[in-house]
């Protein structure tokens, strides 16, 4: 079901207020030719109602001819002309708040903008999904509460009845807290989000991850048709075995011809009770990024590829996000999820 502009403007006003938007602040709304115009127009109206000084910045996309799909998470990091568009980059760095409907995530330019103190809120999911999972103080508190365990943790272990037996060390890279609000200087977030994650220490990820039938593969936006067995050694996926789904996944990763594509990236768990494992089956694949899949409560979300977002140097455009059901995740032996259910306070 679609939503009305009136409801969406009210939601945007709420979210921008939670992002600490104050009258007189500079708001840049970043668009491209494929931006969702309901998001753009309702964000612009709400920012105006709150007294923001608005600048619209439209950038052409590039690399469409290199990516294997139109999905913005299927080829990340180097997809805009911002690297050579110095005037647009200067404007974004000068803004107090950027609403990103284009998806700069994983780009060097995003890191540069954030370092200048600009707050950035990514907004690319379908408006009705954003409204269903509107950020709230309660959702933020859940993520902050999870971080009481994540921040001091030295080791993550994950097991499942399907056969997953994974472990990694933690501490080298910062925690990724996503609750859908860019509410502090230099903070990036994505509306909708409610999850916590961290990158394993370099070379420490080891074990076996079993993607079970029905688990979700992103950016393919498909449920796995059969089991995939991933062997992880010294921080890299070294074997991808199984049936045709495994063959498909391996073939996609191989197509980038980049060893960094096989690195383990962020690992964590979803905390959003309003997100649904089933939603992916109800949308056309090009209609959404599927934050439902990334955030549903109790998932074990692991990923492969880049770590620039965490301050690392791997900037491969190949990034897979894979949320598993039914896993038990512990930090330093303390259970965070048990059989796919959040159990920490
Ligand atoms: Fe990811």
UniProtKB/TrEMBL annotation:
Pfam family name, one: NicX
Coiled coil start-end: none
Organism: Celeribacter neptunius
InterPro entries: M29_Exopeptidase, NicX
Superkingdom of this protein's organism: Bacteria
Protein name: 2,5-dihydroxypyridine 5,6-dioxygenase
SUPFAM superfamilies: Thermophilic metalloprotease-like (SSF144052)
One function term, GO molecular function aspect: dioxygenase activity
Keyword Oxidoreductase attributed: yes
Keyword annotations from UniProtKB, A to Z: Dioxygenase, Metal-binding, Oxidoreductase
